[in-house]
Amino acid sequence: MKPKKAFPKGKPNTAREKTEGTVRLNKFLSNAGICSRREADENIKMGLVQVNGKVVIEMGFQVSATDEVKFDGSRIQKTAPVYVLLNKPKGFVATAQGGVIKKSVQELIRTAAKTKIPPIGDMGRPMTGLLFFTNDEVLRKKLNQSPSIPMVYQVILDKSVTTDMIKELKKGHVIFDKDTKINTISHLEGKSKNEVGIEVHSLSPAALVKLFDAVGLKVIQMDRVTFGGLTKKDLPRGNWRKLSIKEVGFLKMLP
Question: Which end is more exposed in the chain, N or C (fewer Cβ atoms within 10 Å of the end residue's Cβ)?
């Protein structure tokens, strides 16, 4: 396999000299949150950066908004990545369907970034609890495909959950053409028998509703209290916060 052609060292390509609307490649990488400018220079020298399909090893190379930039094979977004955690209240909806949506969760996080940040997964109007948003396409793809995101839900049902129902739920069912099962389920201490806590991995609220339907239970209220190790601590209903570097790193390490 032939190596991709690199732009020559030395004097910048005349089409790549600084013009209005362009920025140095190392600054572009830094602004995107990939690395510092100094580290970007080293990565460029090592041939890890491509612009429009060609490896760039030239210091001071200029890129514009229309260029496609890749680092280590992955496309880099043109804006810095944003990571937001929302404690969603009832009545708002998160969906990937697009179009104009009344009371979208985007209304609740509109001050988090200049552009819309898509959520990971859908969440209907009756559902409440943690919803994660990011424009980091690499992490989005990872989380959307991962079967291993730990989640905890607290659920109120239309009637008491019996021992037989719990056994049936633990057996698992085919939901949305996928084998679906829960890790643990138990009644909540000090609560009525129609309230349970459930630990699952990568199970959406909609899939969980279907799972309860399969054993004759109707969900009255559902709240996601943890997502990938993130909790609602110090995050009142309807509020959002940005993740710390440590929290983002933890999500990126999930299998």
Answer: N
